[in-house]
Amino acid sequence: MIVAAIAVAVAGVTTTAPPASGFQSGTVPTEFVHDAVGDVADARGDIVTAGAGTDAAGYAFSVHVEAPVDPRTDVNWKLRPTRVEWFLDTNLDGTPDAFAVVDADSAGNLHAVMERYSDEFVFCSGVASYTAMHDYLARFPVGCIPGVRQFRWSVIMDYDNGTPQNDLAPDLSFAPVLTLGEVGYWMLGLDANVYKFGSAFAAARATSVAVAITPKRDGSGYWIVDPQGHVFAIGTAQWFGNAPLLAGLEAITTISATPTGSGYWLFSNRGRVFAYGDARTHGDLGSVHLNGQIVASAATPTGLGYYMVGSDGGVFAFGDARFRGSMGGRHLNQPVVGIASTLDNAGYWLVASDGGVFAFSAPFRGSMGSVTLNRPVDGLVAYGNGYLMVASDGGVFDFSNRAFLGSLADRVLSAPIVGIAAFTT
User: Fold this and answer.
1) Which of 57, 231, 292, 331 is the most buried (most CB within 10 A)?
2) What is the pLDDT of residue 133?
3) What is the DSSP string of 236-267?
4) Together in a domain, 140 and 238
């Protein structure tokens, strides 16, 4: 199974009756799996790629086959039980709980419904289309399945040409978990200007200089910090203390919030740790000689530990953070500038200023290491099933199953970008 962090443009030519009120049609697949070509005899039913995606509007599913045909002109769509079914595992127990169905009437007009798997109770109708990209597409409004916040999915293409052709993707498994809700990120400039994207909110500049930003998990607030450790709480984020006593030539370089949103840690270039609110100190590097100054940090998903990374690629794990490897002592083309922990605490990613990514017990989603960049990368953050990286000119590089929401690469900035913070709800 291969997952690609891409999105498709969609243009429907056949649709169902109007779905639930408030449904926006902009949702598109953003997570894709690829299926072997030729595993069913009829190319019209042979899945090549299948996709799913979520955003604040709802969720969408797609299937592309080897030899796509328009249902309005294809007799097997109009007169036989040809259909596409996406199966959703909403409680992550490995069995379907709901399924989305796209089929056609005798005129070849497509229809989409979402049903409960156990008894075929109809949760809601959606919008179905055969697109200009030759995909079969179904979109459903947020709230279609009450209470669902995440799901895994698989799909079967039932193409009936007299002999049913049944192709499944991914084969004998589910695709990775998708989460419904709002998605957004902020970029932080050295002059403390904060730029919003997606569902992120805007706020006035709180100070004149900043070096790092960390968000609340629900996207309702964030904290920024300056080199002296002064913390500024924005939105619903609360202030819990700041400005620790620093030694000569010591500066705060990074901040990480606890998962509860009720505390944060400040980390200095010397590897000292200062805890506020419900954050707890699990150890630091104040008495350790460092080959590279500490440049970034990441809290574990539990809030019971944290990682620090030095510019030489050395990784330091404390609390329930687990050391999985590092680039310390190894040749680097450019210094490491960021670290992000996986959402399951199984591993982490490092990024260097040339955009090269190093994955440790974490899935490698891609990098910019072989691409000539206009400006160096200086930040990395977990995002969906992967990560975002940001360059000092505001260029954003998305290697995840979440939507790319924009960048600042085409704008003249008053100061370089020094960090990025993302959230999904």
Assistant:
1) 231
2) 61
3) T-----------TT--EEEEEE-TTSSEEEEE
4) no
Q: Of 50-54, 220-224, 232-236, give the lowest mean pLDDT range.
A: 50-54
222 and 287 together in one domain: yes
pLDDT digits (tens, 9 = 90+) for 258-268: 999 999 999 99
Q: Could you tell me which residues come within 8 angstroms of residue 26 by beta carbon, excluding any fewer than 6 positions away?
A: 55, 57
Give the separation between CA 66 and CA 48, rounded to whole angstroms. 6
| Domain annotation covers residue 257 | yes
d(CA 340, CA 379): 9
Residue 136 domain-assigned (yes or no):
yes
Q: What is the DSSP letter of 75?
A: H
What amino acid occupies position 229? G
Nearest to 362 by CA among 383, 380, 329, 385: 385
State which residues form the domain around 110.
31-179
pLDDT mean across residues, the chain: 88
Instruction: Name every residue whose Cβ is closer than 8 Å to that of residue 117 and which is 6 or more positions away in sequence.
Output: 87, 88, 96, 97, 98, 99
CATH number at residue 114: 2.60.40.1190
pTM above 0.70, yes or no: no
26 found inside a domain: no
Task: Tell me the CA distances in angstroms from 89 to 124, 178, 358, 401, one per residue in order.
Answer: 17, 10, 31, 18
211 and 172, same domain (yes or no): no
pLDDT in the model for residue 304: 94
Alpha-carbon distance of 169 to 154, in angstroms, equals 6
